[in-house]
Amino acid sequence: MFKIQLLLILLIPAQMFGQYEFKIDGQNYNIPSSVTKKKHIAFENECYQPIYKFKENEKVASIGAGWGINEIIYSLESPKLYFYLEDINAQFLNVSLLEKEIFLLQNSYGKQTKSEFRIYIGDSISTKLPKILFDKILIENSLHEFSNSYEMLCDIEQKLSNNGSLFVSEYISSKPNKRHKGCGKPMFLEPELINLFTKHNLILFKKYQPYLKKEDFIVFEFRKKI
């Protein structure tokens, strides 16, 4: 587990930033400049803040967080939160990259995060998150990547507080056997996805459509059946 708490970072004009490039195993990757633009940060918060409704001092876990960029973006328009970022790939989710991303996004937006970030590297059957109860758990466009969804959801369900919410965002298919364009993994049908969580004592509370031009992209909010 790694903890990052940024108290003060010198603000630099956003136009000084282009793409942030780095290498992993000799391969070049970059954070596109479009992601770090102030307009994009504001737009994402307009779309997701009304859904997540973050409250001060909440513990928020993000499963399959990747680089953690979305969570940093949310933190810029949120009260102090405790983010627990989880992924199975330590090359993409690590302290060095996360610090650079926070620096880029804060300077682009002209605002500092109040939140703290912790990093956890899981595996295919466990998040490796601490045994605490989370107020909110996010699974953003990564459920379809789970190779052992039953084991992972058993772990996740145990870590959600009785009054907490689990938010799952996915592109939903209108017909069987459709695959994601990027990774080639099968897409979920809506009843299939809902049934997957019902088996884990989680019931659908509400559905959201964050993007008006992406009707097939849905955020599902699940809560524990008590």
UniProtKB/TrEMBL annotation:
- The organism encoding this protein is Emticicia oligotrophica (strain DSM 17448 / CIP 109782 / MTCC 6937 / GPTSA100-15)
* Annotated SUPFAM superfamilies: S-adenosyl-L-methionine-dependent methyltransferases
Q: Which Gene3D superfamilies match?
A: Vaccinia Virus protein VP39
Indicate what this protein is called per its UniProt record.
Answer: Class I SAM-dependent methyltransferase
